[in-house]
TrEMBL record:
The chain crosses the membrane at residues 198-231. Transfers the acyl group from the sn-1 position of phosphatidylcholine to all-trans retinol, producing all-trans retinyl esters. Retinyl esters are storage forms of vitamin A. LRAT plays a critical role in vision. It provides the all-trans retinyl ester substrates for the isomerohydrolase which processes the esters into 11-cis-retinol in the retinal pigment epithelium; due to a membrane-associated alcohol dehydrogenase, 11 cis-retinol is oxidized and converted into 11-cis-retinaldehyde which is the chromophore for rhodopsin and the cone photopigments. This is Lecithin retinol acyltransferase. Pathway: Cofactor metabolism; retinol metabolism. It comes from Piprites chloris. Residues 53-180 form the LRAT domain. Its EC number is 2.3.1.135. It catalyses: 1,2-dihexadecanoyl-sn-glycero-3-phosphocholine + all-trans-retinol = all-trans-retinyl hexadecanoate + 2-hexadecanoyl-sn-glycero-3-phosphocholine; 1,2-didodecanoyl-sn-glycero-3-phosphocholine + all-trans-retinol--[retinol-binding protein] = 2-dodecanoyl-sn-glycero-3-phosphocholine + all-trans-retinyl dodecanoate + apo--[retinol-binding protein]; all-trans-retinol--[retinol-binding protein] + a 1,2-diacyl-sn-glycero-3-phosphocholine = apo--[retinol-binding protein] + an all-trans-retinyl ester + a 2-acyl-sn-glycero-3-phosphocholine; 1,2-diheptanoyl-sn-glycero-3-phosphocholine + all-trans-retinol--[retinol-binding protein] = all-trans-retinyl heptanoate + 2-heptanoyl-sn-glycero-3-phosphocholine + apo--[retinol-binding protein]. The lineage of its organism: Eukaryota, Metazoa, Chordata, Craniata, Vertebrata. It is an enzyme of class 2 (transferase).
């Protein structure tokens, strides 16, 4: 039988990550009407090369993709729609926040190709900004692009273990890692370990329940088991 403590901790962390991990556009857009994406041509792609790692910084997160050339970007997006249909025409439409959030909850996603405009959605783009962290591990540009193309289609999704950053680091550097996820987990762990932050930890857990809901089988005592174990450690 699997230990329920790591599973509960993972579930809670993923719920918390969801609070700050909406990839594409303002959170309410998917519920009160989608915002209008930038018009084609708003981005100068002349300096982009096939296999480049594109990075779009947001306020609380970063979205990543691999440039394939001809104004096309491969990126991993949470999406519930591939679970219900094989209609590529429907799936290829720009992912709305409803589809994205349900995809995160259901842990389903797809590696898809969008235009640079739809990928960045008005944000600034950094090119190969992560290369400095990997030095000699950078793969060839064509190898990076081919890896991205081979992974096209539906895939499992996890905010902690298989997100857009894992996808691009595997494609360009050969190993799936996510620095923003690691940083988030360490921050949460530090808060939980601090005896003075017990109340804050409980409030964060309650906020995740109120905002996102939890499976009926996940009771409050189960959720807070990891907290008490970490604080006692």
């Amino acid at each position: 039988m699997k230990n329920p403590v790591p599973q509960a901790a993972s579930l809670l962390l993923e719920k918390l990550m969801l609070l700050v991990h909406v990839h594409v556009r303002p959170f309410l857009a998917g519920f009160v009407g989608e915002t209008t994406p930038p018009a084609p041509g708003d981005y100068d792609t002349s300096s982009f090369k096939r296999g480049d790692l594109l990075e779009v910084p947001r306020t609380l997160f970063i979205h990543f993709g691999i440039y394939l050339g001809e104004n096309r970007v491969a990126h991993l997006m949470p999406d519930i729609l591939p679970s219900f249909t094989d209609d590529l025409q429907q799936i290829q439409q720009v992912v709305t926040n409803k589809r994205l959030i349900l995809g995160v909850i259901a842990r389903t996603a797809s590696v898809r190709v969008d235009t640079v405009e739809d990928f960045a959605y008005g944000g600034s783009i950094l090119v190969n900004h992560m290369d400095r962290l990997f030095e000699d591990q950078v793969l060839g540009s064509e190898e990076s692009a081919r890896r991205a193309e081979k992974l096209m289609g539906a895939t499992a999704y996890s905010l902690l273990w298989n997100n857009c950053e894992h996808f691009v680091t595997y494609c360009r550097y050969g190993a799936p890692v996510s620095f923003q996820t690691d940083k988030f987990c360490e921050t949460v762990k530090m808060i939980i370990r601090d005896q003075r932050s017990v109340l804050a930890s409980v409030l964060v857990g309650l906020a995740s329940i109120v905002c996102l809901g939890l499976a009926p089988s996940t009771t409050l005592p189960t959720i807070f088991i990891p907290f008490f174990l970490w604080m006692a450690g």
